[in-house]
Design a protein that fits this description.
The protein has 155 residues and is of the alpha/beta class. It has four helices and seven strands, in the order E-H-E-H-E-E-H-E-E-E-H. Strands 1-7-6-2-5-4-3 form a seven-stranded mixed beta sheet. The structure holds adenosine-5'-diphosphate and magnesium ion.
């Protein structure tokens, strides 16, 4: 497992890192985003979508669980599985998304741990300060599998 840490001081930088990843990902890639509410997972995903060439505004799929965007270089499947905290992830057919040709981005992936593939890029978002107004974040990115190690090296 390879790991990189990014100290980030504003939302625009988080989005820019997502955009860079969006330019690098390929068909079938799985990106897991973990961290508390407001840590920056959806902000990162907005950048990733831009990097894929998706111009539609990305809305948080908290209530819909999955949103699909098909106007970019690759399809984007943006999932927010927060509502599955108490289970139910096994009924969603997530496998079809993970094994498909799009790029899967999963917010709160720990809530569907048993459904996840064995190889993925995981990004942990952490607020550095207790102050909720602070824009400081630490992003810890870990690569699971050689394909994702290659991606991580380019970030
Ligand atoms: N460094 C940062 N990275 C990402 N978001 C930040 C940062 N600093 C402040 N923010 C703000 O924090 C909020 C993050 O919200 P969001 O991306 O929806 O988080 P999550 O999806 O993790 O709940 C946004 O309002 C964003 O503008
Ligand atoms: Mg979110």
């Amino acid at each position: 497992m390879d790991m990189k840490t990014f100290k980030i001081n504003d939302a625009a930088t988080t989005q820019a890192l997502g955009q860079r990843l969006g330019q690098i990902v390929s068909a079938g890639d799985v990106i897991l985003l973990d961290g508390d509410l407001g840590a920056g997972k959806t902000t990162f995903t907005k950048g990733l979508a831009l990097g894929l060439g998706i111009e539609r505004n990305i809305k948080s799929p908290t209530f819909t669980i999955i949103r699909e965007y098909k106007t970019g270089r690759l399809p984007l499947y943006h999932m927010d599985v927060y509502r599955l905290e108490d289970g139910g992830g096994d009924e969603l057919g997530l496998d079809e998304y993970f094994n498909g040709n799009g790029v899967c981005v999963v917010e709160w992936s720990q809530f569907v741990a048993s459904e996840l593939p064995t190889e993925y890029l995981k990004i942990a978002f952490k607020r550095d300060d207790r102050d909720l107004d602070s824009t400081n974040r630490t992003l810890t990115i870990t690569a699971h599998g050689t394909h994702y190690t290659e991606i991580l090296e380019q970030l």
